[in-house]
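During the no-cost extension, the postdoctoral fellow (Dr. R.K.) reprocessed legacy sequence entries with the updated structure-token encoder. One reprocessed record is reproduced below for audit purposes.
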Amino acid sequence: MDIRLSLFEVFTYLNATPASRNIGEGESILNAGHLILCGVTEFTHSIIRTLGLCLQTSALTKPPHEISGTGNKNDVHM
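Re-encoded structure tokens follow.
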């Protein structure tokens, strides 16, 4: 199943704007190649759970940080 999130949906979920710190830092992590995995772990009739793995910039040999989120499936356009 193809799941696509718009930037509007991402900003709404994060309660952010393009100028928000979390957006800027997330973009830096992505551009640096530190995001090593990102995907959907659960998809039911009502929710979507996601998981990402991100290398620790201060300790690249340590296990990656786990980043998870849960969203309402009805808010996602498919």
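The first helix runs from residue 7 to 14. The chain has two helices and three strands. The remaining legacy entries will be reprocessed before the final report is submitted.
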